[in-house]
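Pasting two entries for a bug report.
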Amino acid sequence: MRVGVLVSGTGTNLQALLDAQARGELAPATIAAVISNRPEVPALGRAAAAGVPAEVVDHRGLAREAFEDRLLARLAAHRADAVVLAGFMRVLTPHFVDRFPLRIVNTHPSLLPAFPGAHALEDALAHGVKLTGVTVHFVDASLDGGPIIAQAAVPVEDGDDAAALRARIQREEHRLLPRVVQRLAAGRLSCQGRHVIGIRAE
C-alpha cells in the first residue's frame, strides 16, 4: 500500500512513520509522498531527509474544491492508495474523502467523541478532566467523527498546561499511528458499521 501523508507543520507524527519505515515496521505500507498545504514547514525537511518525495500544494487563494482537486492530482501522481493526516490542519470535504473510503487515517488529541475540533487540549484542560488521550480514526465527512480504530488514555496531571499535556499525548500518537498504518496496509482492519475490527484499542 502506497501512503500519501498530508502535513501542515512540524511533522512529529510523520517522523514516527518515517522511523517505523526505516526499522522495517511499516511494511507492507510505503510512504509514497509527503504533501504540505504550507510552504517551508519542518515536516517537508523531515521527508526530504528520509529520501521521501515532498512537495507543497498551497491552499491559499483557492476554493476548497479546487485545492482538493490539486491534492488528489498529486496523490494520483504518486500512486497513493491511502492517506494519513499527520497534523494536517485543513478540513477535508466529501469531494476528497469519497475518493479514499476507509483509507484516510487521522490522529486526534482526545478520547473521541470527547473534545472534537482544533482545540481539544485546551478544551480538556478547561473542563478539568482527569483523563484524556489520543484517538486514531478513519476520516469521514464529519468533524473528527469517523470510525475509531485505536485509542490510548493519557492522564491529566496537576499543573499541566497545553504544552505539557501535548508532549505526553504525542508520545502515544507516535506509538499508535505506525501500528494502525501497518495493519491497514496488511488488510488487518475492517469496518462493520462504525466498529473497526482488527486492532485492540488501548
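Entry 2 (this is the one that rendered wrong in the viewer):
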Amino acid sequence: MLAKRQRGFTLIELIVVMVVTGIIAGTIVVFFKPAVDSYVAVGRRARLTDVADTALRRMTRDIRLAVPNSIRSPNSQCFELVPTSDGGRYRMGPNTVWDSANPATPSAWFDGTAAVSALDVLSPLSSTPAAGDWLVIDNQNTNDVYAGTNRAAIQSVGPPPDPSLGYSRITLQAATQFPSGYNGGRFVLVPNSQNAVFYVCAGAGVDANGTGTGTLYRFANYGYNAATPAACPVPVATTPIAASEVASCSFVYSPTQGATQQSGFVWMNLKIAEQGDNVALVYGAHVDNVP
C-alpha cells in the first residue's frame, strides 16, 4: 500500500507568507501611523489647552473680584491681589425718623468722621459673611488693605432692628475709623479663609523632550504683608498648583488704563508644553479701581 501523504506548508510557502505579511504591515504603518500620531497629538493639545484655559480663567476671576487697587506685581512672573466674596452699599447717614422714635436701638451708619462698630447694609448680600471675615472701605492706596488701615474684622451679621434700616447689619469686632472723606458709600467683603492671594510662575522652560518644566502656583491664606513685595514668594511642597508643564509665562499689570485712570488692565500669557506639543494662550482682564 502507498503511504498517505501528510498535508502542510513548505519552507518556501512560509517565507512567502512572511514576506507578504511584512509588506502589508509596512504599508499599514506608513499610511496609518501619521493618522494615529495626529489623533494622539490632537488629544494632547486639547488637554494642554484645557489646563491653560482653566488656570487663566481662575486668575481672571480673582482679578475681576479683587479689592480695588489691591493688585501688586513685583515682576512679570507673579502678582498679588485680594479677592472679595461680596460687596454692597452701607448707610452714610442716620435714619432720623427711626432714631428719634427708638433712641435705644439707633441706625448704624458711617459718614467718614468717626469710628464705627456697626453698619446697616442697604443692598442685599449674595452670601452671609462669617465671623472673622473682613470688611473693606475705600482702598485708594494699594498697600492700605494689606496694612489694615481700611479693613475691619466682622463679628456678626444679622437683621437690623427694623426693615426700614436696611437688609442687614454688620457688627465689627472693634470700633474702626475708616478713611475720612470717602463719600462713595461702598464696601467689599474679603473671606478670612483666603485673605490675600499670590500667583507665581516658577521654573518655566522646556526640557530635552519638549515638555514644560515650570509650575504656576496659587498662594493663599498666608495673611497680609503690609510692605510691597520686592520679589515673588518661593513655593514649597504644600503650595497649591494651578498649572504644571509651564514652558513660559508673563503677567503685566497697568494700573492707569482709561481716560480717567480709574481702571487697570492685567495682561496674562501662559504657554503649556508636553512632548513637543505646546499651547499658548493670552488673556486680558480689566480691573475696576474705583473704591
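Dev reply: Rendering is fixed now. As a check, the viewer should reflect this: Residues 11-64 form the longest helix (54 residues).
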